[in-house]
Amino acid sequence: MVTSPVARAPRTDRTRPTSADEVLRRAGELVPVLRAASEQIERTRHLPPELVEELRDAGMFRMGVPVARGGPGLDSVQQTEAVEILARGDASAAWCAMIGMDTPLYAEFLPESVAREELSDPDAVTAGLILPLGRADRVPGGYRVTGQWRFASGITHADWVVGGCFVYRDGEPEPGNGGEPRRWRIMIAPREQYEVIDTWHTTGLAGSGSRDYRANDLFVPEEHSFSLGEPRTQGPDCTPETILRNMPGVPLGVARAALDYVRELAAGRVDGAAATPWPDTYRVQLAVAESEMELGAARHAVYGSLRRQQRILEAGGELTPDERVDTVLARVNAFRAARTIVTRLYDLVATTAIYRPSPMDRWLRDLTTMRQHVIAQDQVLQSAGAHLLGGTPSNPFSLGIVA
Known about the structure:
alpha+beta, Butyryl-Coa Dehydrogenase, subunit A, domain 1, Butyryl-CoA Dehydrogenase, subunit A, domain 2, Butyryl-CoA Dehydrogenase, subunit A, domain 3, 3 domains, eight-stranded mixed sheet, 10 strands
């Protein structure tokens, strides 16, 4: 029997935000808090419980809860803005907020009764990997699930955990609705029903606690499973790629933090050999200008494409291949541009960057690690090109295409 996570008592007397403006303001208030905690976050390899409570109190996990359910109802543009602000404070915390706030987005694909159960606490956190690394055997009333998944960011403080599976019936793969040889379905269960394995020893995003987890013959009721190709309702938050849209906020926020840091550093620094102040040094001027140019272009691409897509989906329109690919290319470019910018600034700062308390080294490692995410890989670009040309995408999900 699946049980809901235990209801939590209120953690604070402070009112949780109920509007997008308030969420964004509270995110800004958290930036210095996150910066002060960055070394602890990295050292412990997960978010400290007290910091999770601060994120929860500031409404970071409820941003996508609809206004009709008492939430602030941030759209994809506003969610990305909030994540970007948090990333100026700490990349791992922003990454966990970006993942953890997927709870109400998944709820759009679940039966109404389960969606209400999952959202009985609007600050509930969801973690887990939706890719089908597990096996779900059909049994009366649901599935028997076995598998091991990776990269469960925030699972150390999650309430719910998802796990993608291929479905089997009578020992044989069950075909998908669109004629695919296998059916992909996502299971959701309380974290306590999975075994969490401490495998997260990485160079970057160390504090995200993105550990492995596994299940062995776990029973999941049918109503606690869903397909991203079968939304319960209609609207901008009911498309398969809705959980991907706010991801660029993390690299954009880290790049912004690095640029601000270097510009502040430059104000009091002198080029050694020529004894020239950095503000008057050509190579410094060029590096800063190039970085601002690239970051500005990346941000405009992300937010411009998100706004265009939002308008189309809100009007009930269908995305053309170009409109669909627009946000995908902007997303990939944000990860790539951010790492390029921080690498350039790291080289500019030179040996100073390798010593603490300089955050440059951590920012570079964080961006290098997040750049390895499947959503920032070449196969996504191939998929975008294939979709534009009428070919076969190798990763259709990255385009929001799920049969």
